[in-house]
Amino acid sequence: MKNLKLWMFLVAVPLSGFAQDLKGDSPIPFDPAVKTGKLKNGLTYYIRKNAKPENKVDLRLVINAGSILEEDDQQGLAHFMEHMCFNGTKRFPKNALVDYLQSIGVKFGQHLNAYTSFDETVYFLPIPSDSPEKVEKGFQIIEDWAFNAVLTPEEIDKERGVVLEEYRLGLGADDRMTKRFMPKMMYQSHYANRLPIGQKEILENFKYEKLVKFYKDWYRPDLMAVIVVGDIDVAEMEKKIKDHFGSYENPKKEKPRKVYDVPNHKETFVSVESDKEASYAQVQLLYKDYNMPKTLVTINDFKQYIAKGLFSTMLNNRLQELTHSANPPFTFGYTYHGGTWARTKEAYQSFAMTQENKQLDALKVLVEENERVKKFGFTQGELERAKTEWLAGMESSYKDRDKTESERFVSEYQGHFLTKEPTPGIEWTFNAMQKMLPQVSLADVNGLVKDYIKNDNRVVIFTGPEKEGLKKPTEAEVLAVLNKGGENITAYEDAAVAGSLLRKDVKAGTITKKEKNDKLGTTTLTLSNGVKVTYKKTDFKNDEVIMEGISFGGSNLFSNDDQKKVQYAQGALTEAGFSGLKLNDINKFMTGKLASARPYIGGITEGFRGSATPKDMEYMFQMVHAYFTDLNLDKEAYEGYKQKQSAFYANMASEPSAYFQQEFYGFLYKDNPRFMGVIPNEKTWENTDYELAYNKYKERFANAGDFEFYFVGNIDDKAIEEYSAKYLASLPTTGVKEKITDLGYRMIKGDHKKVVNKGTDPKSNVTIMYYGDATYSPKEALAMQALGEILTIKLVEELRENESGVYGVNARGSMSKVPYGSYSFNISFPCGPDNAEKLTASALKELQKIIDNGPEAKDLTKFKEGELLDHKKDIKENNYWLSYFTRSYTNGTNAEEIFKVEEKINALTAKEVQDVAKKYLAKDKVIGILMPE
Asked: How far apart, in whole angstroms, are the C-alpha atoms of residue 834 and residue 506?
């Protein structure tokens, strides 16, 4: 229950006789919609029927064991074992497991995955449940993961290279600084010495029996949970769990599953770390709890949990207000009480991302805000707003309780198994929240701070760039800020809440035409000023309406000089607020109202994106109206924005992969006079013109008649007609219809290779690009996408499984119709510098095989099955429909093509994939390689 957001997705069937009076010592109930039990061997299981998405089941194997249980000569083997489960089991030798799952549409990495942490190892297996055979195979797989991994010396040695590549990926500034501060953050704890990736020397040289020993010691029934949620029969799944897992026994000499504490310390530890490749500066402040985390068991515990959540909400609202000031103390900052790296230790912790030379200032603000709460507490107005915010979020989850995705439940039951997080379901939670929120007093919340803030058991960590002329804060300076307290602190002043989002009277227009498309299930309204509104009512979510408004034009209509001056100022425009209201005023007014809308200016279009609950939809319309007609011009807000953005970008080019992007794309776009680099620098900010950006924005949004708005969700006809007529039909119009503009600029032509040297770690990155102009064809676009996914399968097989040279590799192909017909195909992978050329050759060889011979039938089938599985899920989601509508508008195509997606996927042939490979990828290419200095 540490994570409210996750909690809000819980669902339960109606509970008859919900207790009118919640008694403090009564236990928090367990969700009756979940079938749970324990086999004789100690294996725990959770089963729930849930038909969202349809014909799919999420299987999860949870092992209550991770790197914390490794012996000294096993460091990294918990994670290595996770890898080995995909490399051969009793029923699925070598790569047969991944091969089979791909053949039924389950994508490796995207759907099928796993992770290892300090305390647990977790395997994810979402599979179609439309046939008994697939479900049975799914159970065979998780049974084999649990007990039947085949750990042959040959496969272990092959996987060493892959795991070492993952280890290599993690190297860099963050890794170096983390290893230096961990002994202080996790003082005298086993956690400080058991980072899950392990030790390089051990990964290279461990004896096979050490891995076998870890598997036998810790992959055992009494440390396992099997979770099954989906479109299934509960009784049938329970029988399968018993059949597949009931016969296994725990080891005769069972090793105790130790729980490792983090010892308390009288000292305040300070760790000021810097690195020449660090790209940003951060501040962390931790006040560690003295005792182990308390499990939430009773109603009183639940009330305390609510109080802690309200405390964090109110303090973070204050910190957010500070980031919107003219001189923000940090780019962003937040504070909460919750978990650390260790399962056994929680802390009251604050975090800030700051300017490189303002870490002490940021720490001072975090300390002062804590002191302000300690001295004066929160205000009643803040508490009421926080309660409203919590209840609004919970109510939205409650309304969507029958639309919850299976994976949300699975994560919840995992938390219950590993850390005994309560699982009462949303019905109980919502009812309890309604009754208990009014009972939480200001004294309850203000009283928490005395237990949070202490003078011992503290840790302060600074991480940031190291460069000439930048003074590194000393430990004495950090302690001085921490211990100074708040002698001159005054109480927080709670500003009055605005009465409305609009300050000008709105003169409503009318609806002049209404058209229905029964096939698409849409209604299109034409408004008196020329605006078009198309909406589709769905039942995919009960409490969601999403929107996009779109118009041709965009920044391609700006001159080259103007574009350079406004590019980085455009993000600041919404920071100024609207209707004379500052951002803080708007946020305060919107407390408890779930609605948002934001304008954007792209290259060829401008528009709005927004979302709301049906209840709060009018506020979304009001925001659109305000952004159109009454955007503030606020130079102070711009200066604050510039400070935050400068801090964010200032040292980004110190990080090798960001520097590579800057150099590589600078090379590709060297003939484009509008290209200003990937990372803005001081000169960029000097040349940025906020007022010009404001005027260009006003110009782009002066003509609403050129806009088409799309809405998808649980929409009430009367409401959308009323709001469209009032807030959209009243917008200004000029009668002009703009078109998409192609400026004619392209990336460089020809066959090129660009090597960029940056960084001290032995890390490389390879990018292979094919691109150019082409006549757009939907059929070729699908074939190009298929080519990318099929080549990815082959590259994983060759570069990862056969050559052990990469951890991950990706190929992507696409075609675009606007602003000009084009194709793009990219292959990318990180690797060791010594292997970069060899692996590049291997990747091109795999591509050449498809050019020469076409894809193998089995790989084309894998692509089709994966796409069909995704489409079946996507077609029941609001976002998918909205993006299809806007894409159809931009491309000038018929949205009814959405009903032909499956037909087109099924009709795709191997020859069509080979043809696009021959046509587009036998031409010039650009290879970019990042190498260390």
From this structure: 66
